Amino acid sequence: MRGWQSRRGMRHGHHVGAAPGGGRFSGKFRAAVAGLALLTALPVGAADQQAPVTRAEYDALMKQMMALQKEVADLKSQQAATAKAVAAAPASAAPSPGKVTGKTFDSLQGQIDEVKSITDIVNPGDTKFVIAGSASSTFSTYSNTPSNFGATFAPIFLWQLNDKLLVESEIEMELEDTSTIVNLEYADISYELNDYMTLDAGKFLNPMNIFVERYEPNWINKLPDTPLAIYDGILPESNVGVQLRGAVPIGPSRLKYAGYASNAPRLIADDSEAAGQLQFDNFTSLSDYKAYGGRLGLEVIPGVEAGYGVQYANVTANTGGVGSTSSFLQSVDLEVKRDSPALKGAFTLLGQYAWSNVGDVTYDPNGDLGFGPTNFTNNRSGGYLQLSYRPKRLSDFLNRFEFIVRGDMANAPSSAPGAFDERRLTLGVDYWLTSFTVLKAAYELDERTNGEPNQNGFLLQIATGL
Q: Is this structure's pTM higher than 0.90?
């Protein structure tokens, strides 16, 4: 079976939860980077067919115009004082007005107008652009598998056109076999309808898959790989469509919500190792079927949140002769982040469990593919629970370490061709070089059923991002 993680979870990822203020460009990572753009990015201006003008040149022009304006003000003040003295003094003692003439003013005003016309051309607008992203390098060795070095690079582009409109995109590049794989992880336009609601359109991260939305980027994910079932498994990582999302305050708590409509996934029917599973990368619909889903999350207090997500869609097989059926996905998730003086540090508890129900169909009805005909209802489930602890108050040296334990599992129907269940226990330790660069080491204990060989593994990774 190609398994629950066809890419062994070595991919990098993304960002996003509900924005602190409600619907505004929803997403923790997106909001953080947008904030970075506001604080650090230089505004983008239009050159209007002129040669490019640097920020330094623009600032110099502004200083020149301000100096000219001050000179005019000083001359006006001098002329007013002279006029007042002339009016108060006898005609024979009247002071000479000197060189403060209309011609002088006209010359200065001409210089001001010239400088102002240049600054108007290169005047920065409201748009802001920033490039963020991450990079990582991983060494992995698993039982019965050759050891391997890998690398990923994933730039993120954020373009804020105004206070309400944001464009974001991530392009991930990773090494696979003998090729460099380039994926458009997401590309969407967000428009803030009000303080509690944002509209997204394009390819967006699936809001019911909290791991992908919030924790998948390698510099955020505390372990070198990703959980079973949740990633490359039961839940979609992204959708192509539209969504509404935001948050509503309820006293000290917040209710976070997201609802979407997108292209429906496809039913895999032409692969004996993956028959009955869903192919979520459906960028071109095979039919008019669409997927409908969303998530509700309750943030009881800051750092404590629980959520429930759901997606329903009719799905069409990716090969003829199989037909269509229904799919129903559900998930529950938990996030607890607390700083404990008693434990002299901070701990994070993360968890998610998902269920997938795909209606029964007959696969390989004519036996042409060599594994049918076979009929089964494809019910799958799986998830993870992860606890991490960072001793922030013990010493400056120990503050850089973080200790992690994760348990995850994946369950498949016994009637599915090549199906097996899997259980893993992962122990890890991180060393934070900076607040955004981390060294990770982890050891995995793996157990599989149906005669599949276990794949215990050791992983090392360095990751950085912003």
A: no
Element (H, E) at 32: helix 28-40
Q: Is 59 exposed, middle or buried (0-12, 13-18, 19+ CB in 10 A)?
A: exposed
To which residue do tokens 């997201």 refer?
Answer: 258
Please enumerate in sequence order all residues whose Cβ is within 8 A of that of 27, keeping only pairs 6 or more positions apart, or say none: 15, 16, 17, 18, 19, 205, 213
The CA-CA-CA angle for residues 32, 33, 37, to 5°, reads 120
**Cα dihedral 218, 148, 280, 284 in deg (nearest 10):** 110
- Of all helices (H) and strands (E), which one includes residue 438? strand 437-448
Where do the structural domains in the chain lie, given as residue ranges?
28-34+127-465, 55-122
Q: Phi, psi at residue 110, to the nearest 5°?
A: -65, -40
Cα–Cα distance between 332 and 352 in angstroms, integer? 6
- Cβ contacts of residue 95 below 8 Å, gap of 6+? 82, 85, 86, 89
Give dist(CA 320, CA 407) in Å, integer. Answer: 39
> Helices H, strands E: what count in the chain?
4, 18
Q: What is the DSSP string of 164-206?
A: SEEEEEEEEEEEETTEEEEEEEEEEEEEEEETTEEEEEEEEE-
Measure the CA–CA gap between 418 and 73, rounded to whole angstroms. Answer: 86
- As a CATH number, domain 28-34+127-465 is 2.40.160.10
Q: How does pLDDT run across 279-288, given as a tens digit for each residue?
A: 888 787 778 8
Q: How far apart are CA 8 and CA 268, in angstroms?
A: 19
Q: Which tens digits make up the pLDDT trace of 317-376? A: 877 677 788 999 999 999 999 998 888 899 999 999 999 999 888 887 877 777 778 888
Burial class (CB in 10 A: 0-12, 13-18, 19+), 312: middle
Q: Which of 233, 253, 345 is nearest to 306 (CA)?
A: 253
Residue 43 structure tokens? 């505004």
- Over the stretch 451-465, which tens digit does the pLDDT of each residue have? 889 999 999 999 999
